[in-house]
Amino acid sequence: MPPMALLYLVLTCGVNKVSTNVGLSHVSTIYLPFMYTDSKPTFDIRQDAAAQSSYDAARGVVYTVGYSGVLHVIDVTNVNNLNIIHKLEFHDFYKLMATDVQVCGSYVAVTLQHKEILDNGTLRIYTAYNRMRENMNLLREETIGVFPTQLVFTKDCTILLTANEGRLTKSMLTHTPYHDAEGTISIIKFSTGDLGYGPATVKTLDFKRFNARSAEYVSKGVRFLYNGLEQTDLQSTFSQDMEPEYITINAAETKAYVCLQENNAVAMVDIATESIDEIHPLGYKDWSQYKLDASDVDGVRMYGYEVYGMYQPDNIKYFTWDDKEFIVSANEGDGKAYRVDSHGLTWSETIRGQVFSKESLIDDSVSEDLKRDLRDPKKLGNLVFSFKDGEVKDSATNKFSRFYTYGGRSFSIWDAQDLSLVFDSGSDVEEKHSERFPNIFNSHIESETHTPTTDMDTRSDDKGPEPETVEVVPIDERLYFFIGNERTSTIMIYSMGKGSTVPVFESIYRSGLTNSTWRDLYENREIGDIDLEDMLYIPYDQSPNCKPLLLVIGSVSGTMSLYEVTGLPEPTNPKCLTVTKEPPLTTKSTVTTEFTTPRSAFTSTTTATMTTTKTAQGTPSITDRIEVSSSNSPQQAVIIAVSLITAVVVVAIIGALLGFLYFRNRGDIRNMAALNKGVSSSSPFDNRTYMEFQNESASDIRKP
User: Fold this and answer.
1) More confident residue, 395 or 373
2) pLDDT tens digits for 136-190?
3) DSSP 639-663
4) What's the pLDDT score for residue 343?
5) DSSP notation for 215-242
6) Which residues in 139-152 are b (16+ Cβ under 10 Å) and which e?
7) Nearest by Cα to 118 from 533, 569, 704
8) For 623, which DSSP code?
9) Phi, psi at residue 348, to the nearest 5°?
10) How far is the C-alpha of 44 from the C-alpha of 116, rounded, in Å?
């Protein structure tokens, strides 16, 4: 044996073999309907059938929601055959948007927003899907801030936070066509671990206390974009301009980090005191130090320019590494535009590079090279910039000396203490696409009659690939980052080892074909997951097939897919998940379901003890055992029999007493009946299905 080969064997002895690169392998995909007519599903592309998801390992299901307003429960116990086993329609078609869903223990939380009434958002808590009864019960409904975009639980399910973006729209409460809602964070605290029982407190935090210091925060880099329309008396404040997008919580669950995407900042929230402590600007990316493709008419051409990028992350995640705290961000970018129908006015903060030159908005201090690039459609001429940033201070001419574009086209790592930048992937996202997927570089669905390849380069002049979502997974001595790019519909994997804060590239993956039109690819179920909106890593011990999986949601394709993550270190003694009809309950649990309307309330109580079985290894199996206070010993049987006899005797005595009282007071009862003539005492829910009640409950929300 050659000496070098012998040395390699010695060095690698006892080490888990890991493939050179961690990658993805497609397992299965399910296409989701965006609406139902007489219980018949309707499918189509670009209909918001799915946007967010949550995995319920104990029950072997995934919950998905989309802006079309339908919650689907998908059975994933057989990863090769995904099936919809339950649905909730929250409204008449497209009136009530479901914006996020999360499962925590035995409960499922859903955030909702009515499309036509943006005076508040709604949080609903349901029981988790019950396989035996094939249902989900509505437990409670709470009012939260306007346009909730995301929700997150603490690990014990007793605290829930929502990021409420707030949007400019009409108000039904104030009857005004112009309503710029406050951006807020709602904190819901449940008095017990049973989310359906006991009181809950809801506190919605706004940014009003920062209004007096708005100039200070703007000078630091927090963007204040929209303060009203100059042509009207309509005004907006700094706090109204803040737009919370996403929340992540630290390990101690004492602090929440809230991404303010359009404002290019992150707010820190103290969960215990229920207060916003600070707003941290994220700064700017100097594109002269990196390269980007800024033109949609030149193919793949990447250059460095004297312009700046605003990171503007959509999705952020907290993680710890080497005993330090960090935040990772997917730097999508986003501009702001409003339409005020009452005045027939449209406001937008965006401007193309050529317009600076055509309207003589470039300051004399700008270099000749940059002036030339801003005029050239093959360079910066078509690129979208902001006219709210870069204006020369104290200039009577309102000219611009610096130019800011949207998004970092990257992912970044930030110090969780002060939000200082630790790492940015620079040009790597676009460069890896140009190397591995040049035929769909910076693409998106420009037209359903186009093919993915003909739409190549169509997003270069906007925000490029738009990194949308990120998942962070620590395994052994390495940390893995999964980056989902919205426009190119690709997933990139990076990793880093102990002692490092510089991730290295592992692989890039894209599902779906590219040789037919977008429409044909969808109809043939070959489109893949388009516009990645959500991703979730499922580890070995939580996986239905004992393999590490990545759950992916494609919002434009309306799909949910499972991918096996290949090349990861394998556990020495893998413990595989066993899914049961119902997950185990450590103690007897009482579930109270309340349906409340202005007319009446209905309450039902059930008590059950459920058990499950687990296997140490092998393929997960479904077991059907459910015990309701079961007993096997003779002594316990005698006790139960005596208890039943005693209960019968007690019921008989109570019945006799009630009968005596009835006949004694029959005359009084007749008199009361006469007073209430025409009023029915029957429950309004007696002859209605659960789904019918759900639709009525949704319609109640629409009332001003």
Assistant:
1) 373
2) 999 999 999 999 999 999 999 999 999 999 987 765 565 666 778 999 999 999 9
3) HHHHHHHHHHHHHHHHHHHHHHHHH
4) 66
5) HHHHHHT------B-TTSS-B--HHHH-
6) bbbbebbbbbbbbb
7) 704
8) B
9) -145, 145
10) 23
Quick one: CA torsion of 161, 339, 51, 311, rounded to 10 degrees? -70
* Residue 305 dihedral angles phi and psi, to the nearest 5°: -135, 160
pTM for the model stands at 0.81
Distance CA(35)–CA(49), nearest Å, equals 8
Length of the chain: 704
Return phi, psi of residue 655, to 5°.
-60, -40
CB < 8 Å & 24+ apart, contacts of 437-442: 437/488, 437/490, 437/508, 437/510, 438/300, 439/514, 440/488, 440/489, 440/510, 440/514, 441/293, 441/300, 441/488, 442/293, 442/296, 442/487, 442/488
Query: Which residue in the block uniquely carries the two structure tokens 């009482």?
Result: 590
Separation of alpha carbons 698 and 261, rounded Å? 30
Q: How many Cβ atoms sit within 10 Å of the Cβ of residue 694?
A: 18
Strands 532-538 and 549-554, sheet pairing? antiparallel
β-pairing, 308-310 with 404-406?
parallel
Count of alpha carbons within 13 angstroms of residue 643, beta-carbon side = 6
Tokens encoding 291: 């390269």
Structure tokens at 363: 């300051």
Q: How confident is the model over 422-433, as pLDDT tens digits?
A: 999 999 999 999
Under a CB-based contact definition with an 8 Å cutoff, are residues 30 and 563 in contact? no
Annotated domain spans of the chain: 589-672+684-702
Two tokens, residue 651: 């019921």
b (16+ CB within 10 A) / e for 355-373: ebbeeebbbeebeeebbeb
With CA atoms as reference, report the closest residue to 285 among 389, 362, 165, 395.
389
Task: List CB contacts of 330: < 8 A, sequence separation 6 or more.
Answer: 313, 314, 315, 316, 411, 467, 468, 469, 470, 483, 484
Residue type, 699: S
Average pLDDT, integer, range 641-651: 60
pLDDT of residue 13: 35
**Checking DSSP bridges between strand 490-497 and strand 96-104, what pairing results, if any?**
unpaired
Q: What is the rounded distance in angstroms from the CA atom of residue 112 to the CA atom of residue 518?
A: 30
Phi, psi of 337 (to 5 degrees): -145, 140
Decide: helix, strand or coil at residue 33.
coil
Q: Are the CB atoms for 387 and 406 separated by under 8 Å? A: no
